[in-house]
Amino acid sequence: MLPYLLIALALADTAMGEVIAKFANCQNSFYASIPPNGFQNLSNQASIVNLCLKYPKNRNPFYAALYHKMYHYPLYSAYISSGFGQRASPTSLLEPQLVSPSLPPYMMTLQDLVKAIDADTTIQGDPITLIRNSQAVNSDYENTSYNKGQLNPDVQHLPGPAQDATYTLANIVPMNSALNSGQWRLYEDSIRNLTLTCTTMYVITGAVNGETWISNNRVNVPSHIWSAYCCVDANNIPISTQGVWASNNADNVNRVTIPNLQSWLNGQLGVNINLFQNNCT
Ligand SMILES: *[C@@H]1O[C@H](CO)[C@@H](O)[C@H](O)[C@H]1NC(C)=O
Ligand SMILES: *[C@@H]1O[C@H](CO)[C@@H](O)[C@H](O)[C@H]1NC(C)=O
Ligand SMILES: *[C@@H]1O[C@H](CO)[C@@H](O)[C@H](O)[C@H]1NC(C)=O
């Protein structure tokens, strides 16, 4: 067992940057500051990194994402819903530290990222190639039938930096357009509305990898989207909780209990997942 343990520890240590081991700088995005348990048991851990999403320069992280470097999207985004926001679809930003830990720890435009790479003497190679190898870019979503589906949606944040920070490709998956503009949109609205009844509304929204890809196999298309919330009062006592999952090929959202969502995730991912401490009860 020991060699395996050492390999596992070595891999954990390679997690870079604001790409940080165990979400060290953004644990308060999670209920009780505890990230979901079980994702560390997925195979191919070397492809999975912990991101603390920052916008713009040197601000505290707004939320957390477990990013998959082969699928080129997050396995989940974990965040605190903060109220009534607006929907928009600007050009999405990119994550410098997915290219190199020597780059700045906050999201930026493609243009600015190319400049930052050019200015960094420790990085060798063509900036655009390095960027495309490390993450999805906006053009991957052009001319596809899929929407840029935000896991942490703009509509659950007041206009300002917390909302702006949702426009990064590290928070985006290819989502069925009927679902994204139909039942999933209503689910997002219902969480936003419910946020008014909580002191803090913790949400985790994720994607299950599927069999198809877009943009010359650059970005995986999730087979399913899922989400769970934990609404707590001023003493951090849970008030309400629920889970949902949806196939990414139909406009339908299934509402389930947290234990049922976890059983469903176990069937999809093959590992035991615990989303919230004590299932948010
Ligand atoms: C999308 O299609 C338009 C029109 O055919 C084309 O000009 C553009 O280059 C395409 N974009 C990508 C990323 O393939
Ligand atoms: C959310 O609240 C708005 C305004 O109060 C209401 O119009 C809308 O129907 C609600 N949406 C859902 C999905 O509950
Ligand atoms: C996942 O790994 C933990 C240790 O990190 C272990 O305790 C647990 O039993 C594993 N669960 C599975 C196989 O889902």
From TrEMBL:
Keywords assigned by UniProt, alphabetized: Signal
Domain ENPP1-3/EXOG-like endonuclease/phosphodiesterase: 60-264
InterPro entries cross-referenced by the UniProt entry: DNA/RNA_non-sp_Endonuclease_sf, Endo_G_ENPP1-like_dom, ENDOD1, ENPP1-3/EXOG-like_nuc-like, His-Me_finger_sf
Organism domain of life: Eukaryota
Gene3D superfamilies, sorted: Extracellular Endonuclease, subunit A
GO terms of molecular function: hydrolase activity; metal ion binding; nucleic acid binding
PANTHER family in alphabetical order: ENDONUCLEASE DOMAIN-CONTAINING 1 PROTEIN ENDOD1, LOC100145419 PROTEIN
The protein, known as: Uncharacterized protein
Organism: Leptobrachium leishanense
